[in-house]
Amino acid sequence: MYESYRIQPAGHKAGKRLPNAGPDATIDTGTPHHHWKATMPPVALVTGGNRGIGLGITRRLLTDGFAVSILATREEPADLLAELRADAGGDDRVRYVRGSVADLHDHARYVDDAVDAWGRLDLLVNNAGVAPTVRSDLLDATAESFDRVLGINLRGPYFLTQTFARRVVELRDKAAANRAEAGDVVPRPEDRPAPAQEESAPTAPVATIVNVSSISATTVSTNRGDYCVSKAGVAMATQLWAVRLAPEGIVVYEVRPGVIATDMTAGVTQKYDEMIENGLAPVNRWGRPADVAGAVAILASGQTPYSTGEVFHVDGGMHIPVL
């Protein structure tokens, strides 16, 4: 699924040198030379993974074999965690860290907790987000609401991405150094097959980052401008990080939901029921958390390593201009 880079202890020998062979030759021990994370399962961090869209993503990733760490502001939900752990087949695939994505001091603590528990990082899903407490016309909007919404929806995931990416690079480089010390040398570029001769599947990414934004990134709602601006910022942040992290082997995507049935939309159910009935989107129904989770699962599979910065719409076709 992913390039493997779990750190092995210094001196660990992943393969032996062939006698009378060149300095870069090793015996294949079942793990490709470019694999650094030698153990499963892959590890996902899901902010706001305890409710709404985030809970749908958590459930899907557990079903797909990930270990999942949730970052959330609420007290540890004992009943929910017991249910998730039972579904996962044990306690060791689910962790819960109480903290806020808006608090930059919580970022390193969150990432470190996952590394300490599992020794690897594969996926970050920046899902946590809020709507304004009170929807206000642009002429009545407050700086307090703006700062709160952008702090959680944009500033938080922007810098959590930075913390996550730095740690992935650090783990990768330490693992490579350990492997070099152990004599498990990656083949030189000149010894590898030319691209035209390669028939195997494309190399999977080192790690993946998925930003959950909103159709509000490009669709105006003048009674919640702060929310729209925050999601437009997430869209640009996705492109920025996609370009910067591509040389590190990390791919970055944006999943852009439309009208999804969650507690965030519960207060405007009647409004959207009428809009959906009147043809809001070609797929004529409410979206569900499982719909968004399916998109995240596809992007998290490691099967699209030559794509980055992409937007995956989960809106029933609502984004399509129709005359």
TrEMBL record:
Residues 1-23, 179-203 are annotated as: Disordered. It comes from the Bacteria. It holds the Pfam family adh_short_C2. Keywords: Oxidoreductase. The keyword Oxidoreductase applies. The keyword Oxidoreductase applies. One of its GO terms (molecular function) is oxidoreductase activity, acting on the CH-OH group of donors, NAD or NADP as acceptor. Residues 42-256 form the Ketoreductase domain. Belongs to the short-chain dehydrogenases/reductases (SDR) family. This is 3-ketoacyl-ACP reductase. It comes from Cellulomonas chitinilytica.
